[in-house]
Amino acid sequence: MERIEKSKLGMARLWRDPYIKKLVLLLVAAIFVAIALLWIYGLYSTERLKQSWLDKESAMIGSIASTRPELANEWVRLLSDSGQPTVQELESGRKLLEEYGITSELEARWLPAIEHYRSHTLWTLISGTVLGFAILAYFLLRHARRQLFDIRNLAVALDDTVKHNQPMKFRIYGEGELGLLANGVQELSLRLKETIGQLNQDKDFMKETVADISHQLKTPLASLMIYIDLLREGNIDSQHSKEFLDTCKRELDRMEWLTLTLLKIARLEADALEMSLKSASLLATVTSAIETIQRLAAEKGITIEIEHSDESLSLYQDSHWLAEAIANVLKNAVEHSPEKSRITVTWERTPVFIRLRIIDRGFGIEEQHLPHIFKKFYRVSGGGHGVGLGLPLSKSIVERHGGMLTAAPNPKGGTIMTMTLPLNPLPIESPLTNL
Amino acid sequence: MNVISVDGLSKSYGKGGTRVDALKDVSFSIKQGEFVAVVGASGSGKSTLLHMLGGLDRPTNGYVHIDGEDLYGLKEKERAVFRRRKIGFIFQSYNLIPVLNVEENIQLPLLLDHRQPDKVFVNDLIHTLGLQDRRKHLPSELSGGQQQRVAIGRALAYRPAIVLADEPTGNLDTRNGQEVIELLKLAVRQYHQTVVVITHDMNVAAEADRVLTLQDGLLISDSSSVGRSL
Predict the structure, then answer these.
(1) How would CATH label the architecture of A278-422?
(2) What is the CATH number of the domain that holds B162?
(3) What is the 3-state secondary structure (H, E, C) of B97-166?
(4) Count of CB atoms within 10 A of residue A89's CB?
(5) Interface residue A406 vs chain B (CB under 8 A)
(6) Fewest CB atoms within 10 A around its CB: which of A65, A187, A240, B182?
(7) What residue stretches are annotated with the ABC transporter domain (chain B) (predicted)?
(8) Which residue of B79, B127, B157 is in closest CB contact with A424?
(9) Rounded CA gap, A165 and A156, in Å?
(10) Domain regions of chain A by residue span
(11) Which residues of B touch A6 (CB under 8 A)?
């Protein structure tokens, strides 16, 4: 899985980040404010310069007019003439001024209006720029602080979560990189909680299983002890001792089956057992399941028939285990069917699933028992002589195939057990997504 | 662990004489991994309830907490992100984007979040949904059952904590409807998700772990389904 590619951190992605977006907006706003302020200041200082220049001119005209009015008229005409001065005019003017020592090299402070303009502009621009940068820096820091604040809160919340296994107290639901990071952290904390929950559940399950096993084994063990003690005392006639031995054998068989099945379920449910899923023929699996149950069915004169539309149908399966699951359901059906009845195994393929049905025409299961029949050691009172482990084992196996096992009453009497097996199981614990 | 908890939820539309109370003080909570059906006659407030759970409409009173987050305490924008990441929706009318193909529709929630979909996961998901031959088809080229499977894929792509389905089998025949429900049930188990299905189909309700019944905006019963559940 590729995680991060440089191209994916391109400008477009950068722009989607709300933090970057705000930053850019802030900078653009700052530029506009700066332009506006400079514009206003430019107009203002030009106005001031014009004013002081006009003042100077007015004073000159005033003083000339008082002595030589005709010259003053000429001066005013030249002043309001907006045409460009000619080269000769400039040349002769400069020469005249030079004689008085007024050249462009003259320091501005000898010309009060210029000097005033210069110092004013200089100080205003410098202090304005400093102030502007200070304000901008303040906003940038505030902007950065908000994000740092979020990160800090996230870190504190994460720390709490890790230490106390609580849900995150501080959460962020947002776009952008921080939003994704927060989402990842939040998911992580939820997963952690889930995993711890699962571990506790496993522990409880282990306890339960041990209790189940000891409970189920104690009774037959006790009776075995008694029978063996009686046999050892040797005061029993051969007729009775044979009976006792038969009972012992039966109890031992039962104990063997019980332990083996419980171990299988425990290993399946604790995920300690690897299924090797391969594409294989469903018909072959069903046939091998029927074979193991054939003798039991024959004793009751029950026929097991296969009804299918697609002989070549193959399924992603561990055929050994799936056959065991089917066999256990069949065994249950045989035990709950009257003598000389029929059990049908049928399947259909949908676009997504294979639905395998095992239909018996037996006594059926009462509605109130249906939700419980897949629980360990649950026995529908009176019926059968199983210990209530076959169906739970089947359910575990089917679930390991990514499927479901359900039971429903058969409208014509009896029960329909349905195994819903996905053609392609849902992806197991998958990485969520790539960032 | 309660994934959803609803507290004194009420919703009314209109004012004064024309006021309609769609939901009246409804409270319940749903544990992680539960498959819950909400049943009731039309106008009983089922859809309103689903909208409230999904953060699509603001309640008049009361709270909805999802994964411990007060849904209506979030800002509008945050709620939109929350919804996208935490809640998957499945609708009666599929609501697929007509101009996007199957694959794109499934990846849509990820693309909206500007995330790179995990190709392996999406590919596996498409196989599970039986859509491997249809991945480049547009919704209009698919049957109803296929379209609803695409919608399920879309709801699962982000692996949201909860999936809300509004009459998901309403436009489907029994066969396709059953398949949709079975897929949802498998997802619940595989991804520890929580599913809330609104339905008037009692067969669908019978598949649920729990059935909530609404009548005239009131929660009148909350029962474990006795039926074909595991």
Answers:
(1) 2-Layer Sandwich (3.30)
(2) 3.40.50.300
(3) CCCCCHHHHHHHHHHHCCCECCHHHHHHHHHHCCCCCCCCCCHHHCCHHHHHHHHHHHHHHCCCCEEEEE
(4) 11
(5) yes
(6) A240
(7) 4-230
(8) B127
(9) 13
(10) 8-146, 176-268, 278-422
(11) none
Which residues touch A228 (CB under 8 Å, ≥6 apart)?
A248
Domain A176-268, what fold? Helix Hairpins (1.10.287)
Mutate to test the interface with A, among B66, B70, B81, B223 (most CBs of A within 10 A): B81
pLDDT at B50: 92
Does position A431 have pLDDT exceeding 60, yes or no? no
Interval B159-176: pLDDT, tens? 888 999 999 998 889 888
List all residues of chain A from 183 to 212 with a beta carbon under 8 Å from chain B.
Answer: 183, 190, 193-194, 197
Between chain A and chain B, how many beta carbons pairs sit less than 8 Å apart?
127
pLDDT of res. A165: 76
* Subunit contact A371:B227, Cβ cutoff 8 A: yes
Q: Does B227 contact chain A (CB < 8 Å)? A: yes
Hey, what are B108's tokens? 């849509």
| Residue A3: per-residue pLDDT | 45
Give yes or no for B161 touching A (CB within 8 A). yes
pLDDT at A419: 94
Beta carbons of B116 and A367 less than 8 Å apart = no
User: Which B-chain residues 123-152 have CB contacts (< 8 A) with chain A?
Assistant: 124-125, 127-130, 145-146, 149
Residues B49-104: pLDDT tens digits?
999 999 988 999 999 999 888 999 999 989 998 998 889 999 999 999 999 999 99
pLDDT tens per residue, range A359-384: 998 888 877 787 788 887 777 655 44
CB contact under 8 A, B1 and A193: yes
What is the pLDDT, as a whole number, of residue B164? 94
Domain for residue B131, yes or no? yes
Instruction: With beta carbons under 8 A apart, name residues in chain A contacting B228.
Output: 370, 406-408
Q: Which residues contact B39 (CB under 8 A, 6 or more apart)?
A: B46, B198, B199, B200, B202, B205, B211, B212, B213, B214
Does residue A78 carry a pLDDT above 50?
A: yes
Number of domains in chain B: 1
Distance of alpha carbon B216 from the chain centroid: 21
Q: What is the pLDDT of residue A303?
A: 92
For B107, which residue in chain A has the nearest alpha carbon? Answer: A433
At residue A1, the pLDDT reads: 37
By the CB < 8 Å criterion, does B98 face chain A? Answer: no
Range of the domain at B80: 31-59+76-224
- Nearest partner of A391 among A403, A374, A378, judged by Cα: A374
Query: How many Cβ atoms sit within 10 Å of the Cβ of residue A398?
Result: 24
